[in-house]
Amino acid sequence: MPRSAKENNRISLPLEWPYRLLGNLVILGIIFFLASITVTIKTDLINKKLLNLQDSFYRFTTDLGFTVEDIVVSGRRHTGMDEIRSALNIDRRTNILRLNLDEIRERLEQLPWIRKVVVRRSFFPHTLYIGILEYTVKSLWQYNGKFHPIGENGQIINADYIPRRPVLLIVGAGAPENISKLLPVIEKDKDIFRRVKVAVYVSGRRWNLILDHISHGIVIKLPETGVREAWEKLIKLNRSKNILKRKLTNIDLRLKGKVIVKLEKSDSAAAKKRKAKESKI
To answer: How far, in Å, CA of 16 to CA of 10, rounded?
Structure first.
């Protein structure tokens, strides 16, 4: 078909805007890259100058006597002074203005006996005060032939410990993590609690308590759930019947609404049983 006169008078030029856009983006990228390098160099130079000024300030104040003259530690019972000294890493040439109190607190709280630390400084005199709150040992966990002190919230304290008073012995895997739930319940009656020598965590589910003697004491079998109700039932029963003064070997509280006891065999009963056996022979 013949082309119209209008089409014959039209000249199509190549599109240039995509190339211009791409070129502008490349130029902007180069400018941004060069600007970022310039800013980085200037920032590093400024940081270096600030650090140099800071070091000069600390050297000047150190020469003026702003150094740590004394360290006062309070609340320490189990933590050794050598451990504290090593964690602090401070001597008489240490600038008291330069001390980072948060870092000091964090380092001290890494020590096994320390639960919480409060740190403050005094400039006249130049003294660092450290207040320590240590863990309180609530029980002693026997596991794999070793004894580990356990804190009030079930924390395992990785440190040597020699009890100076009777401490509840706990046994079994998972005992430390669960003892903090048991203690508030069995501590209600102080007289009974003083008689509890061992708490055995059975199969990761429930507790057996041994009263009076580790090897031949009364074994109290607690339920998996409803421990508080079962323990209160035992307290009432003991107050009304003096059940814990009787010669028992087991008190089973695992069945709801029931208390099953097992009497200790007397020597005479054991002797009769032995004689009956011998007569049969």
So the answer is: 18
